[in-house]
Amino acid sequence: MAAPSSSSDTHVEDIVDEKTSKDDVTFSSLGLVDVLCESCEQLKWKVPTKIQREAIPVALQGKDVIGLAETGSGKTAAFALPILQALLDTPQRLFALVLTPTRELAFQISEQFEALGSNIGVTCAVVIGGIDMMTQSLQLAKKPHIVIATPGRLVDHLENTKGFNLRALKYLVMDEADRILNMDFEEELNKILKVIPKQRHTYLFSATMTKKVAKLQRASLQEPVKVEVSTKYQTVDKLQQSYLFIPAKHKDCYLVSILNELAGNSTLIFCSTCNNTQRVALMLRNLGLMAIPLHGQMSQSKRLGMLNKFKGKMRSILIATDVASRGLDIPHVDCVINFDIPTHSKDYIHRVGRTARAGRSGKAITFVTQYDVELYQRIEQLIGKKLPLFKTEEEEVMMLMERVNEAQRYAKIEMKEKDEKKGKRKNLDDSEETIGVRKRMKGKKKK
């Protein structure tokens, strides 16, 4: 182990010598018990990823961990496996709490805990917004081993759910800590930290070490070991990145052309707005392409339904806003297309990190129009490389123009009809409310 640095944490950069073959390191050699190694085998994980090789031995020694890892590095298992091993040693209800910024990520972490703990009967509860509080209260009353929560909804339960507390908690994980803080959950985090035991193990995982994350580290971790697998913004080596410079008015045509070329691959397309996500999905469907949307204006159940269709390979094209750019682990994404260029350069890293995960290869194509040049240059500056041009035949693309125009027209009509239905529904709700108020007023006058 490296000697402690002048700061409060020990710094571990490369515990495993890169010259050592990865195959020499197994889950068993990291110190994990047989039953958990079997779970890894069942999930077809042959060798640990770099973050797992570095974080798991430190965590098994009972130390607090700060994990700085690029997206798609396998960090969920890096904290889940040590927690499950500790749970085996000292079985207890409400043993660990995992805080995460988004609802989708919470479900995904729960799935991973349940898969890894399938041989030991681990129980999990997901506590997030957009789902009935009473249903969650009943889940919490059963006292699961692991609670995975978004900070806001967890505070609601700590303050309002009778009999629920985390006074016996042994482990706290803050996953995507930089994003939790960027989403202004600081107040909720402080409330949670006040009501959980001071004597606990804490793991803090983040893609970036911001000032806010450093402050959180000082407030909540004791003599942590820093495990860092990436010191600068970067994308994984097996990712083939390219860009396409095209006029804004022909974006749809080029998208359809590329999707035809990539037929059979599973593709994730990023748009900047909910409206554009919906429009592109409808347009592609009108062209017979199996596309589904995912955005923040959809209900939670619908979002999960769409995600499961894509994960289950029932649909090969998912069009999403940045709601899907971080944390979502969909193993089979072959290609990411940035249909709308991200406004924040860092979001590019997270978007393209949805493919080429856990050692697999993948493609990322970014559409650059005449209005996006400056944003694109910032991305190249951030990743420190010039990307090659994605080769297309303009004549072939333009042959699709007529069909694409017709599909666009139908998509606009469908969206207009949906908006009109929403408007009618809202007016009906308003009128029902008004009738209700009038009836109540009449009742009071009679009295």
Explain the layout of strands and helices.
Layout: E1 10-12, H1 34-42, H2 50-60, E2 65-68, H3 75-89, E3 96-99, H4 103-116, E4 124-127, H5 133-141, E5 146-149, H6 151-160, E6 171-174, H7 177-182, H8 186-195, E7 201-206, H9 211-220, E8 225-228, E9 239-245, H10 251-261, E10 267-270, H11 274-286, E11 291-294, H12 300-311, E12 317-320, E13 335-338, H13 345-352, E14 362-368, H14 373-383, H15 394-398, H16 401-446
Parallel strand pairs: 1-8, 2-7, 2-8, 3-5, 3-6, 4-5, 6-7, 9-14, 10-12, 10-13, 11-12, 13-14
Helix pairs in contact: 2-3, 3-4, 6-8, 11-16, 13-14
Summarize the structure.
The N terminus is likely disordered.
List keywords for this structure.
single chain, alpha/beta, Rossmann fold, 2 domains, eight-stranded parallel beta sheet, 16 helices
What does this structure look like?
With 447 residues, the chain is an alpha/beta fold. It folds into 2 domains: 219 residues, 3-Layer(aba) Sandwich (Rossmann fold), CATH 3.40.50.300; 178 residues, P-loop containing nucleotide triphosphate hydrolases (Rossmann fold, 3-Layer(aba) Sandwich). It is built from 16 helices and 14 strands. The strands form 2 sheets. The protein has an 8-stranded parallel β-sheet with strand order 1-8-2-7-6-3-5-4, with helices on both faces. Strands 9-14-13-10-12-11 form a 6-stranded parallel β-sheet, sandwiched between helices. α12 links the parallel β11 and β12. α3 crosses α4, α11 crosses α16 and α13 packs across α14. The chain is globular, with a radius of gyration of 24 Å. The N terminus is likely disordered.
